[in-house]
Amino acid sequence: MKTYLVGGAVRDELLGLPVRERDWVVVGATPADMEAAGYRPVGRDFPVFLHPETGEEHALARTERKSGRGYHGFVFHTGTDVTLEDDLERRDLTVNAIARDDDGRLVDPFGGRRDLEARLLRHVSDAFVEDPVRLLRVARFYARFAPLGFRVADETKALLARMVADGEVDHLVPERVWSETERSLALPGPQRFFELLREVGALARLFPELDALFGVPQPETHHPEIDSGRHTLLALAQAARMETSTAVRFAVLCHDFGKALTPRDRWPAHHGHEAAGVAPVRACCERLGVPRAHRDLALLATRWHLHVHRALELRPATVLDLLEAADAFRRPERFEDLLLACEADARGREGFEDRDYPQAAHLRRALDLARAVSAREIAESGLTGPAIAEELRKRRIAAIRQVAGDR
Predict the structure, then answer these.
(1) pTM tops 0.85, yes or no
(2) 1-115 CATH choice from 3.30.470.10, 2.60.120.10, 3.30.460.10, 3.90.1170.50
(3) Tens digits of per-residue pLDDT, 362-385?
């Protein structure tokens, strides 16, 4: 019975990155041996145990054999005859197939350390194609490590494209697609996740609403990058640069879905794309099981982002309409997220990355002034029924009018 540190912990240590969690592989043991040593069994599909003191996961070395479609279609084998190399060979990328023993010696049968030095994400073996989740995982690793100079090996991209062509990607369950997407959105380079999916043909299968934006032009005056899909990914990169939440980043990803529905004879203009985008955003969220908070912010950004962009030009009454439509009085924190999404959108254009976005400060001030109007004071003035709401609106508009004076 011998224990090895494996996977991401070894990889991140070699890269000089913080190690968030540690996984271990145990060779030469049976489940009975583990329980006798005080480990607590927790694995459902294959034997995994929690260390009696540290609580860290220890899995018995295993092999796997494809038995069906999708990522559930595997038969696992564990036994004292399974070697460490057997276990490492079933892993996805060489940089994740490095182990370290108790004496600090590395076991690296597939050249993972060499690929770390070369900044290369490369598959371990052709068995890689048997698990469609690996396509999402590679895209996620690319989103994490591309800012460090990593790229995906050409031969690995070829395998990913083959998985798409063979239909393996169509067997991914929506919950897993969203799980990997949400984790990727939180990373330093979330746009890389979608770039790789598009390069290997998977974006059209998993995110058809986003894929449809590529090749759709916008006015060059406002969008020097021209392409709507490219703009979306530039905006997503800005949202990451601004260190926003995954909900904000998802809203940025979705905000222009309506441009894919503009008739070609109207290009490059996209009048009404905000309202047109609501249906495809809903469809995407329903298909993937997107959490309500993410969905609602994405719908809000889709429908109202142009109003936010034009905030300095809007009449006070229209600003109040925007605040009410966004439910800003009851949910100011979500309105703040809307402003962040719109700022990322505005900066997600070639040459606009460092531009100021005064619209956000303008609307924050407008909300503060409007919220300061006392509904109780109006109610206590003797007004009743609809007259209270009319007076409240009148006073809020007057308060918002002060913002123009502040400028």
Answers:
(1) yes
(2) 3.30.460.10
(3) 999 999 999 999 888 887 787 878
